[in-house]
Every structure is written in C-alpha cells, then in structure tokens.
Amino acid sequence: MTTLFEPIVLDAQTLTDKVYENVREAIVSRRIAPGARITENQISSGLGVSKTPVREALVKLAHVGLVEPAESRGVRVVAPSRRLLIEGYQVRAALEAQAVRLAGERRTDTDLATMQRLAQESLAAAVDHDGTQFRRVNPGLHRTIARCSGNERLATLVSESIDLVAALRARDLPVPDTSELCGRQHVAIVSAIADRAATRAAQLMREHLATVLESILDSHDAQAAGSGEPAVQP
C-alpha cells in the first residue's frame, strides 16, 4: 500500500506546522490526487498524531486554498480548473511584483549572490532539458526573492500562493516547452534587482508569470479537449 505521508520527527517546530507541511507536500507532490477526499482520521492514523494538530493543519490548508470542505466528512483536495489557475496566478503576480520591487530596494550583496546563482541554475537546467532540476530551482528562486523583500508576511503569502498553483498544475501533460524562456526571464529579473531598478523588476516579474500562466492554460485546455470536457471550467 502506498504511503501518503512521511513520518514526523519532532523538533522545536510545532506539531501543527509539521502536520501542515507533511500534508501540504503530499498534495503538492500529488501523492494525494487532486479531487481526493481525506479525513482527520486518515491523517491522524497515518502520521501517528492526535486529531487536534490535524484539525488545525487542515484549517491552514483551507486558508491557503489547497483543500475545501467535502460533501460528507473530511476535506477534498482542490482540483484544477481554468478559473482557479487564472486566479492563482493573478494573486501570484500581485504579490510577487510587490516582493521583487522591495527586493530591488532592500537586497544585500549576499542576497543578490544567492538570487544570481539560482537564476543561472534555472537557465542552465532549462538549456540542458533537465526538468527535475528546473522544477526544484524555480520555486526556490521565487521564494528567495520574496524573502529578500524584507517583509516576512509577504514572503509567507508568496510561498503559500506558489504551493497552491503547484497543486493545480498538471505537469504530466505535454505542453509547449517554455522553460528556457522562463530561465532567461529569471536572469533578467535578477539583473533588474542587481541594478536596484525596482519598477523594471516588478514589470518583468508580471510578464514572467503571464508567460507561465499562458503555458499552463494551454496544458489545461489540452487536457479538457482530450477528455471531451469543456476547456473553460467553473
């Protein structure tokens, strides 16, 4: 039987946060499929914890948008729809444009070196057609830019929005390969941050996320066409 959750190792982090991160990773990695129903009992027994931290973690997951109430007991993992994809990327664009603007104003030399390394790694992975490496580095760069904004709450919201769209994306479908374009956009964004050109960095970030959304919608529409369902879902 496939194990949905990873064993929890307790440390200084709260148990609720551990449960949240464990279930979130199971959703984002699609060990729990989109649309699947999960219950407090299932998570509690799977992780070997009481229901209280599970209940609190599910509230956090619902706040992020990764789960929604099921028809009966438990919650259901959010399933992709065109509307949710568009809304998710609209939120990301608003949050990350502000984050990159602040990063352009507040970044340190150490911050910049980290962002430059990640941007170059994303481009190298794209050129080498290394999708696994690109998917690892890509969210890391976006989260690093948000962290360099110096606004912890904004960085948290960016991270949550990245998790949501990751759960909504259907990466197993054939889509136009825009990875190299995205890698070059990453380099351009970080270059603007290096120049402390905050307004230009924000515009480049919006254009970058629009490119990503267009590619993902192509994937979503191809899936809908292949299944015979309408491309535009509620």
Automatic annotation (TrEMBL):
Entry keyword set: DNA-binding, Transcription, Transcription regulation
UniProt GO MF annotations: DNA binding; DNA-binding transcription factor activity
Entry annotated with the keyword Disulfide bond: no
Transcription keyword on record: yes
Record-linked SUPFAM superfamilies: GntR ligand-binding domain-like (SSF48008), Winged helix' DNA-binding domain (SSF46785)
Domain HTH gntR-type, residue spans: 13-80
InterPro entries xrefs: GntR_C, TF_FadR/GntR_C, Tscrpt_reg_HTH_GntR, WH-like_DNA-bd_sf, WH_DNA-bd_sf
Protein name: DNA-binding GntR family transcriptional regulator
Organism of this sequence: Jiangella mangrovi
Lineage: Bacteria, Bacillati, Actinomycetota, Actinomycetes, Jiangellales
